[in-house]
Here is the input.
Amino acid sequence: MSLIDVVIQGVQILMSEKRDAVVQKIRELHQRLIDAYGEEQQDQDEKVDPVATLANTILSQNTNDSNRDLAYQQLRARFSTWEAVRDAPEKEVVEAIRPAGLAPTKGPRIQEALRTITEQQGEISLTFLRDMPLEEAKAWLRNLNGVGPKTASIVLLFALGRAAFPVDTHVHRVSKRLGLIPKTASREQAHDLLEDLVPQKAYYAFHLNLINHGRAICKARSPDCEACMLSDCCCYYQGSIK
Ligand code: SF4
Here is the structure.
């Protein structure tokens, strides 16, 4: 074995040891978050329409939950089917979803997604994504205008029970502070990094509890580190990252 091979092997061993340590840390954090916020279980019997999840998630971009919910309710009250949303005059859809903000952008995106689904599947249904290889399913969704990694992962995890880990602003911030991902990791990179590190069976509850923690304690501007049950594991609190 040449010197260069020995060096490469040494780096690989160090990297795998570091990865193992982060995975172990995630297991510990997962349990503490469950102790604090509970463990929400994914109801496998509950029938969630992935098209509804897609539309809802597009509506949720850059707004809060109550505005998203109001816009979604208005959309469903005004149009009885997704076909009706697809075929409606654009201004009527925009009007219905106005509470979500950015309605002139989100309305056409939802209609375009519905048209693309129809063209490619012959109906408005995304259940075919349940059986598609995961990376293909992600790529299919991300080909829709306005659908990024977060929206695609939410549809896959929440509506289709697939092994995708969505990263929103809270998950991104808290993961970086805890040192689970590099502080320079983009939101897009964080999807792949966390998907690799978090045990698959923990995706659902860990994702939700990082959001709970980001909202309750690890807030963007003023994290309440003194009240935090994770401070002894936190790189931000320990001062190793700013
Ligand atoms: S110690 Fe502070 S920065 Fe770290 S996770 Fe807790 S609240 Fe966030």
Residues 174, 177-178, 217-218, 223-225, 228, 230-231, 234, 236-237 surround iron/sulfur cluster (CB under 6 Å).
